[in-house]
């Protein structure tokens, strides 16, 4: 097994999903004991294929008494085995990709002298990472979390995303100004063989993605494997734009 790049720094609990509602809330039956609690869901997407009632889930406990909902949904069981989890916390991918970048685990993005988070790409727009090098120049990276999988194919997005399309357009403009720009998809579940745009969910995103690729925006897709220990890099995922 590869090294854990991101460890869970809060206590974890197991339970089963009763329902997810109002986007950011879910009712969970805790195990053992069967107590029902309401938890925070750190995911604004539809969570299609990772929000089925009765699914086994992992929660993190902030142990913060000032929070209305101190428990947060972290993972949903989608397959058998130690790594059969989908990571639904959209805050994890950026931490994971940053850790991978800092130790050179992503060859396509290695060799840069510096890394900045949440860098201003243009007025009113920030992207997740800016890599810089005196010889190679700038490389802008925007990270997207992927949890939608159907018939062994991963798809992005899982809901209509105007914000996601705007990120692609910013990357396109950066390329036109001579920078390198990358859209990085992190598939946070084990049961996929390929990644495609979710044209059946948001056809405009797929059209925009294909256009910016032709203009020079690069696509990278990797998969992380999650367990109770944390997240490890499981290798690249083939991407098919058509």
Question: Gist?
Answer:
The chain is 16% helix and 44% strand.
What does this structure look like?
With 242 residues, the chain is of the alpha+beta class. It is built from three helices and 16 strands. The strands form three sheets. The chain has a seven-stranded mixed sheet. Strand 11 and strand 12 form a beta hairpin.
Number of strand segments: 16
C-alpha termini separation: 33 Å
The number of helical elements comes to: 3
Q: How many discrete structural domains? A: 2
CATH class descriptor name of the largest domain: Alpha Beta
User: Describe the biggest sheet?
Assistant: 7 strands, mixed
Task: Assess the beta-strand content as a share of residues.
Answer: 35-45%
Derived structural class: alpha+beta
Integer-rounded radius of gyration: 18 Å
- H/E element order: EEEEEEEHEEEEEHEEHEE
Overall form: globular
The CATH architecture of the largest domain can be named as 3-Layer(aba) Sandwich
Strand line-up in the sheet with most strands:
1-16-15-13-10-9-8
Task: Report helical residue fraction.
Answer: 10-25%
CATH topology of the largest domain: Trna Endonuclease, Chain: A, domain 1
Low-confidence stretches: none
- The mean pLDDT is 96
């Amino acid at each position: 097994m590869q090294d854990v790049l991101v460890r869970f720094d809060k206590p974890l609990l197991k339970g089963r999903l009763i329902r997810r509602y109002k986007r950011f809330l879910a009712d969970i039956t805790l195990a053992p004991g069967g107590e029902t609690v309401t938890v925070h869901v750190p995911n604004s997407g539809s969570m299609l294929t990772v929000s089925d009632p009765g699914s086994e889930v992992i929660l993190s406990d902030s142990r913060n008494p000032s929070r209305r909902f101190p428990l947060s949904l972290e993972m949903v069981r989608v397959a058998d085995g130690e790594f059969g989890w989908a990571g639904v916390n959209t805050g994890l991918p950026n931490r994971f990709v940053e850790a991978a970048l800092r130790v050179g685990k992503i060859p396509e993005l290695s060799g840069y002298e510096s890394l900045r988070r949440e860098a201003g790409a243009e007025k009113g727009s920030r992207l997740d990472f800016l890599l810089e090098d005196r010889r190679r120049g700038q490389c802008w990276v925007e990270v997207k979390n992927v949890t939608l999988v159907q018939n062994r194919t991963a798809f992005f997005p899982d809901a209509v995303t105007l914000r996601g399309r705007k990120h692609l357009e910013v990357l396109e403009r950066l390329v036109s100004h001579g920078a390198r720009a990358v859209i990085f998809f992190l598939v946070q579940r084990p049961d996929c063989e390929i990644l495609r745009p979710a044209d059946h969910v948001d056809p405009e995103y797929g059209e925009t993605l294909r256009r910016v690729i032709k203009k020079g925006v690069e696509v990278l897709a990797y998969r992380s494997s999650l367990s109770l220990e944390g997240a490890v890099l499981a290798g690249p995922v083939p991407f098919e734009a058509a």
